[in-house]
Specification:
Layout lengths: L2 E5 L5 H14 L4 H22 L6 E9 L4 E8 L26 H9 L2 E7 L2 E9 L1
Antiparallel strand pairs: 1-2, 2-3, 3-5, 4-5
Length: 135
């Protein structure tokens, strides 16, 4: 399974995105699914960069696997930061105006709604977020 490990910094999101897009291009992924996966990667990697590590910058590993029947991309982010399950984040009330809504949570909500499946595990001291998108 192709993977890349980078310091969990906002500046490395573009490198991770280029990495997964190369594999998605080879897999003839639709542009719509690719953009949705790019947004999901950006959001989840941003969360790791901002919140996973308290004092030092740690690493994040991004892996992607293309599966058949049904054809889908399995994107996994792994870090050794503070345990955090993004699926437990309460969905924002999108019926409220932007001014009325609490800050935070919208990005995770978008990822949950745009992907076909999403899961979280904390194993061997690692956060593991897996996102699946039919392509």
């Amino acid at each position: 399974m192709p993977k890349i490990t980078l310091p969990a910094e906002i500046d490395n999101i573009e490198t991770a995105t280029d990495f997964i897009n190369g594999i998605l291009d080879e897999a003839d992924c639709s542009m719509k699914a690719q953009v949705q996966l790019d947004i999901a990667l950006d959001e989840m990697m941003s969360n790791v960069a901002r919140y996973a590590y308290t004092s030092n910058v740690g690493d994040v590993t991004v892996s992607i696997e293309i599966l058949d029947d049904p054809r889908r991309a399995v994107l996994t982010l792994t870090d050794e930061g503070i345990p955090y399950d993004p699926l437990q984040k309460e969905d924002p009330d999108i019926t409220l105006s932007a001014e009325e809504r609490k800050i935070g949570g919208l990005g995770i909500y978008i990822v949950k709604k745009s992907m076909d499946d999403m899961s979280y595990a904390f194993e061997d001291g690692k956060n593991i977020v897996t996102i699946i998108k039919n392509i």
